[in-house]
Amino acid sequence: MAAIDSHAGASGSFLRLLCVLRWVAVAGQALTIFIVTGPMQVALPQQPLWAGVAVLAVFNVYASWRSAQSRDARAPEQFLHLLADIVVLSWQVGWSGGLENPFSSLFLLPIALSILALPPAWIWTTAAASLLGFAVSVLAGRPLPHVHAAMGDTFNLHKLGMLVNFLISAVVLLVFFARLAALWRTRERELAALRERFARNEGIVALATHAASVAHELNTPLATLTLMVDEMSEPGATSPRPEDTTAMRQLIEQCRDRVRALAVPAHATASGAAHVNLEEVVDRWQLVRPTIELSRSGSIAGHERVDAAVGHLLQALLNNAADASESAGAKRVDLRLEAVGDTLAGEIRDYGPGFGKAAPLLPGTLFRTNKPDGLGIGLALSHATVERLGGELSMQEPVQGSGVRVTFKLPLTMAA
Question: Maximum distance among all alpha carbons in the chain?
Fold first, then answer.
């Protein structure tokens, strides 16, 4: 949306600049006709020349109204405005000497203006129109009459006209290019500010994703702890067994480690400086979900160290698969991790009821879940993590049996 607004503003600014230059041209042509046919006593046909000035002025009234009404002007409309200037200039030059007219080089100005405002195809179209206008004014133009005035002969008049033409062209180009340079410097400052803002937002988004992933991971061990405490609190419950106490202590330690992970600086998370070992991630998950049978396959030897976000991704997908399997009474999850070339490929399969045909496979919004006590952020965070790391995430039905297969591919350069 910002790019569209910027383009619309630029096209509207170009039309307004053309209107200003056109009023200068109207005033300049009127003054030149008055001086040349008056004090300089050059016998030029005044009626066609003044008619050209009037047509240009009337057109500029419309152009000023149009530029004020709308900020958006497409390339064809901008070309038509330049074409009107070329037609009037051809008319004026043709009635005032053709090739002998020192102002014939003004045909270059529309081309220069088009280069800075129009797409390449319309630049060439403007150049062709200028060339055609110059050719018509030269071939069909009236010769400059002999001069008998204070300026001497026709050649002296031509030299004076060339001087004036040079001054006009220099002023127009100086004003226009100075304005362009100012706009360019402003745009460069805006781009520098946007780059800085983007880098800052990347760090904030990475930290937010990291924090949300940690919160999602904490939900499972806390639920397990709650269940164990409830069992111990039931009437007639025996004293906790040593293995239960050990499991609770390990779960609490894991929660403490996960909370400490929130202290990882945003720049470390965004740059990939925070790493985890995938084998340790799987071991921690099995500690949290001891009732789930995990079937492993594949090999990632030499590529165990990955970005912390990949560890969050794997735990979120494993938790979702375990919950789906348990909802169908099957306490099993299949996990395949494999390093293939420069890609880390993973597949997690659950043995749950599968996904509904009407439900989106990869929700783009948070807090959408089918689980009564779910947070609804697992798949959304997984999708966001894979996108940020430049990978792919997909879901399919298994070839045999029920459940869902979730596969992901990540470049090892980003995963490591």
Answer: 128
Could you count the other beta carbons within 10 Å of the beta carbon of residue 276?
A: 20
What pTM value is reported for the model?
Answer: 0.45
Exposed / middle / buried, residue 236 (Cβ in 10 Å: 0-12, 13-18, 19+): exposed
Instruction: Answer yes or no: do 145 and 266 share one domain.
Output: no
**CA–CA dist 395, 400 (Å, integer):** 15
Both 288 and 145 in a single domain?
no
Q: Are residues 20 and 93 in the same domain?
A: yes
Q: What are the b/e assignments for 331-363, b being 16+ CB within 10 Å?
A: ebbbbbbebeeeebbbbbbbbbeeeeeeeeeeb
Residue 264: Cβ-neighbour burial (10 angstroms; 0-12, 13-18, 19+): middle
Domain of residue 21: give its range: 2-152
Does residue 158 sit within a domain?
no
How far apart CA 59 and CA 85 sit, in angstroms, is 9
Q: For the chain, 416 residues long, give each residue's pLDDT as a single digit of tens.
A: 333 344 444 566 778 888 888 898 898 888 888 887 877 777 788 898 899 999 999 999 998 888 887 666 788 888 999 999 999 989 988 888 777 777 777 888 888 888 877 888 999 999 999 999 988 888 887 777 665 554 555 556 556 666 666 777 677 667 767 776 777 788 788 888 777 767 656 655 665 666 666 666 666 676 676 777 667 666 666 666 666 667 776 777 767 666 665 555 444 444 444 678 888 889 888 877 888 899 999 888 888 888 878 887 888 889 888 888 888 888 899 999 998 888 899 999 999 887 665 454 554 444 445 554 444 556 766 777 788 788 888 888 888 888 889 999 998 765 55
